[in-house]
Amino acid sequence: MKLPSHLYAMVDPLGGHHPVALAETLLRAGARVLQLRLKNASGRDFMTAAEQIAARCRQWQAMLIVNDRADVAQLCGAAGVHLGQTDLPLAVARRLLGPEFIIGISTHEVAQARAAEAGGADYIGFGPMFAGGAKQTALGRGLDQLRAVRAAVSLPIVAIGGITEQLVPEVLAAGADAAAIISDIVMAPDIEGKVRRILALRPS
Asked: What angle do CA 122, 128, 134 make, to 5 degrees?
């Protein structure tokens, strides 16, 4: 698969925005791949937000990926699901969702990246890249480990964790196909402007 842009935008409530309103802002600014990440939402609220955001993504011809919840992703008509190392196993998700559904897998090392590729993942997330970020990570994997993963797999790589607008060119130059950004976007006073600037960046 090919990701539609080098920004993998995250619909996350960290900045206090309503998920649907945030998704609309991201889409209006030009984001064309969104991940819906609602870690603390009830199943009902997650499903409601997913249905509304999926409809808006179809209007904008954008790709919606649902974090963790393969059932919600399937029911709302999303393009895919993103799974962590302790979520539904990749093979089970593939049986549930079928071959056309996009499945991304979070990875933190070369061995996990290779396992995801061998298991049939469509793309991998890799991180946390740097200290800080939404999870306040103490220590990131860094650019050298990203380069090692890039050399080990041919799948698209979405780098995540502590990435800011200023770091995007370095992350892309190190082999990521896209950068997933939460804090630097959702906490920005001008989200649309931030997204437009990120989309205009190129590898350093």
From this structure: 110
Domain boundaries, given as residue ranges, for the chain: 7-199
What are the DSSP calls for 57-120, one per residue?
A: HHHTT-EEEEES-HHHHHHHT-SEEEE-TTSS-HHHHHHHH-TTSEEEEEESSHHHHHHHHHTT
pLDDT digits (tens, 9 = 90+) for 34-71: 999 999 999 999 999 999 999 999 999 999 999 999 99
Inform me whether the pLDDT recorded for 140 exceeds 80: yes
Residues, the chain:
204
Q: Which residues form the catalytic set?
A: 37, 106, 135
The CATH code of domain 7-199 reads: 3.20.20.70
CB 194 within 8 A of CB 184: yes
Query: For residue 14, what are its two tokens?
Result: 């960290």
CA angle 97, 22, 99 (to 5 degrees): 15
Please give the Cα distance from 186 to 195 (Å, whole number): 10
Average pLDDT over residues 90-110: 97
Query: Which residues, other chains included, contact 202 with Cβ-Cβ below 8 Å and sequence gap of 6+?
Result: 169, 172
Residue 186: Cβ-neighbour burial (10 angstroms; 0-12, 13-18, 19+): buried
Distance of alpha carbon 149 from alpha carbon 113, whole angstroms: 7
pLDDT digits (tens, 9 = 90+) for 14-31: 999 999 999 999 999 999
